[in-house]
Sequence to fold (533 residues):
Amino acid sequence: MSASANVEVKVKEFSKEDPAKLAAFEKHVAEGGLVEPNDWMPEAYRALMLRMAEHHANSEIVGALPEGEWITKAPSLLRKLALTAKVQDEVGHGQMLYEVAQDLGKTRNAMLRDLITGVTKYHNCFNYPCPTWADVCMIAWLIDGAAILNQGTLAHGSFGPYIRTMRRINMEEAFHFKHGEDMVLTLMSGTENQKKMAQEAFDRWWGPALAFFGPVDPPDVMERPAMKWRMKTATNDELRQKYVNRFAPAAMATGLVVNVCEKDEKGFVTSATPDPLLKLDKETGNWGFTQPDWDEFFRVIRGDGPCNKERMALRRFSYEQGEWVRRAILNGATNAPCNN
Amino acid sequence: MLSKARTNIPEATGDLTTPEVDSFPIWEVFTQKNIGDVHLHAGSLSAPDASLAQHFAREHYGQDQECTNMWVGLRETFIADEGNQESYEVFVQWKAGDRHQHVGSVDACCGCEAKAKCKEQFVGDKSFYTIWTAPISRLTKIDGDKDMIWRETTDQGYRLPRGYSRVVRQKWDALRAEQAVDTYQEEDLKETF
Fold:
């Protein structure tokens, strides 16, 4: 499971910056120029980029938690191998993104601890339950698919270390997505029970997948720092539309039904009806769709989601249980090279 | 029997009970994708010492993605101006956003001289963004020929997108064919009766 660095960040006044330097920076970035950690950058850019990378890193390692729990329960050796590799990839993405954030001025320890104590956040979609194997399949297909789409645009951003990381991450996400597609197709070519299981998981994940790209764009989105400074190169709504255009027809082709669902507080579907707006507009080439439940989205972000507490308890447990490992490897560490 | 240790974890909030450990030093990793290719900067990692940095690099930058050779060194040695008389590997980042690329090696008395020699011998009047140099004695080099990194002896297709292309295609074809037969039978029945 992977996540976008789609985080709404409020920027304090950055009028304190030297206007000439700021103007030169904005011109450089607007013309497609890239920024490296040692270049001059507005403090607000540094702060935003740090938060974006940190949030993305947090999401990677939190997202790996529910999937890791499924390794022992995966239905075949191949699926176990693939899921193990995927979880390893996700944690690796977290490691690379923490490196990017670290170079912008916050220590890795501080980031790991802020995540657990709730000072910083991770992507909202990981606060939903993953009760069946079909959920693992849908996450790999729908959520990793959304991540590739988003990160593909982030790879054209302005911060050098972040875009280098995005390029590498996207190569690995492509495996997660393809594996997800394979698993969904396996279920949808299977028995009636498998199809039912897939549909139920799809109903649970379609909403969070649409909400994955973040809230509806504000009218001044292009003027906001994230777009103006090319930290992001596509808006939330553009990405969401592209996603629906790609995934709604694909889901229908497998035999899945795109439903609008109501859910209980545990994240389980209580009613599902086919999306009445799901139609192809032949002129624009865009598919119509019902927006995800934004009230639910904001409620879950505020911490009142089905799995917020569970995910953080597991992260805290992992961190505290791993304490002796950190202590042990620090004992007798040497920086001399080791050519065996 | 599956362990239940990770389910039903008690809820906990507030400060962590474990103390913060010291930050680990940062290491830079270069990988060579195929024999004969240049070594390209793969990324960085945090590790307490060279031995663990090497293990981490192998798992993270080697096992995850195919490569034949790998070099690992402390970040500070790449940017340092100091050093001793010896051979240095030299790397150029041609423009902002690029990965550092290994361009060759030079003999120098310190990092500063190595950078100057790199500029003279490998850059000339071309424009570049930054130069890194690393004394060879400070690099951990892993030769994939003698010491396998990417485990190509077993099929690693399950961790690559191309490992799924054929089977995904077959499944789509089968699914569409089945749907076509279903539609045909439905219409056939309608017309017949």
In short: The mean pLDDT of chain A is 91. The domain at 19-310 of chain A is CATH 1.20.1260.10 (Ferritin).
